[in-house]
């Protein structure tokens, strides 16, 4: 869990920073839910790490467990894909596009190339997720929430 949680800030910063491409044309209820989850995961990004450091404290053990985490995530995402294919009509999965974009569509190439390096750094000795800076938009979300904005429809299309 410490390994997975360590990836939350860079992975979800990637998502949040590319929210325009990934979510701006999507249903606000779905976009807002996903972005809320991203913000929430970044907010508690070092809980499992703190427990791991107290109980185990061995970075080499975390590194040794990385392949099993990768296999677990691959299986998890395959399960999600299968469930979507079973329960969501193909037309809805592609937002009506005849040919959906591949490779995260219009996300800038520099962002796509930087993400694996950012994720790899999370395994380095001495890495502490608590020292990672959240994306600037994280503060926007938190401020809007504090001010009472309707966060269930905060981002995306308002059809």
Shape: globular
Count every beta strand, where a strand is a DSSP E run of 2 or more residues.
Answer: 0
Distance between the termini: 38 Å
Which bin fits the share of residues in helices?
55-70%
* β-sheet strand percentage: under 5%
Count of discrete alpha- or pi-helical segments spanning 4 or more residues: 10
Query: Which secondary-structure class do the elements indicate?
Result: mainly alpha
What order do the SSEs take from the amino end to the carboxyl end, as H and E?
Answer: HHHHHHHHHH
Which regions have little confidence, pLDDT < 50, spanning 5+ residues? Answer: none
Largest pleated sheet: none
- The radius of gyration over CA amounts to 17 Å
Q: Please give the domain count.
A: 1
Oligomer: single chain
Instruction: Indicate the mean pLDDT.
Output: 90
Kindly list the characteristics that best describe this protein.
mainly alpha, 159 residues, 0% strand, single chain, 64% helix
Write the layout of secondary structure elements.
Elements: H1 2-6, H2 8-17, H3 19-23, H4 28-43, H5 47-55, H6 59-64, H7 66-87, H8 90-93, H9 109-121, H10 136-146
Q: Would you mind describing this structure in some detail?
A:
- The protein has 159 residues and is an all-alpha fold.
- It has one domain.
- It has 10 helices and no strands.
- The protein has helices at residues 2-6, 8-17, 19-23, 28-43, 47-55, 59-64, 66-87, 90-93, 109-121, 136-146.
- Helix 2 (8-17) runs antiparallel to helix 4 (28-43).
- The protein is globular.
């Amino acid at each position: 869990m410490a390994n997975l949680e360590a990836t939350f800030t860079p992975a979800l910063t990637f998502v949040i920073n590319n929210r325009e491409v990934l979510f701006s044309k999507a249903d606000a209820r779905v976009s807002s839910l996903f972005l809320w989850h991203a913000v929430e995961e970044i907010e508690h990004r070092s809980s499992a790490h703190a427990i791991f450091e107290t109980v185990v404290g061995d970075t080499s053990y975390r590194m040794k467990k990385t392949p099993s985490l990768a296999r677990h995530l691959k299986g998890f995402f395959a399960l999600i894909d299968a469930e979507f294919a079973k329960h969501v009509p193909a037309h809805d999965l592609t937002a009506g596009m005849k040919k959906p974009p591949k490779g995260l569509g219009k996300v800038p190439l520099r962002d796509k190339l930087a993400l694996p390096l950012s994720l790899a750094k999370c395994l380095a000795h001495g890495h502490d997720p608590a020292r990672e800076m959240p994306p600037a938009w994280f503060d926007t979300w938190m401020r809007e929430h504090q001010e009472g904005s309707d966060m269930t429809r905060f981002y995306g299309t308002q059809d």
